[in-house]
Amino acid sequence: MSGLTNNSPRPTDIRLHQTSRLLEIKFDNNTECQLSCEFLRVYSPSAEVRGHGHGQESLQIGKEDVNITAIEPVGNYAVKLTFSDGHDTGLYSWDYLYDLGRDYEALWLEYLGKLSVAGIKRKES
To answer: Measured between alpha carbons, how far is 117 from 111 in angstroms, rounded to an integer?
Structure first.
């Protein structure tokens, strides 16, 4: 997670669409993104997912049906997301959410590639 600067885009609106399991975010630089709950869960910034250093990441599997059950603001720099599988330890800073939205396609393909290498098939929802 990089640090927020005065130029970091900040959300102006965050809406959870529970039926489609999408988090819609609008930023103050007119950027908008929709991130699936599964994507947010597998890219959680928590130590459980990212580890404590390079090479310690934990591949998240079986998160196709996960949903967000709570969104809590953390100061004026992040939100804490609680997921239906009980995961709630990642703090999603504004810049991290922005980066996830900007790099969504590449990150999603990277995740699918890691699943493939591990021989794991995603359940299509």
So the answer is: 10
List the 91-93 sheet strands across, edge first. 68-74, 78-83, 91-93
**Is this model's pTM higher than 0.90 or not?**
yes
Pairing of strands 22-27, 32-36: antiparallel
26 within 8 A of 73, measured Cβ to Cβ: no
Place of tokens 């990642």: 90
Q: What's phi and psi for 61, nearest 5 deg?
A: -125, 155
Rounded to whole angstroms, the Cα distance separating 30 from 1 reads 22
Rounded mean pLDDT, 31-46:
97
How many CB atoms sit inside 10 A of residue 81's CB? 25
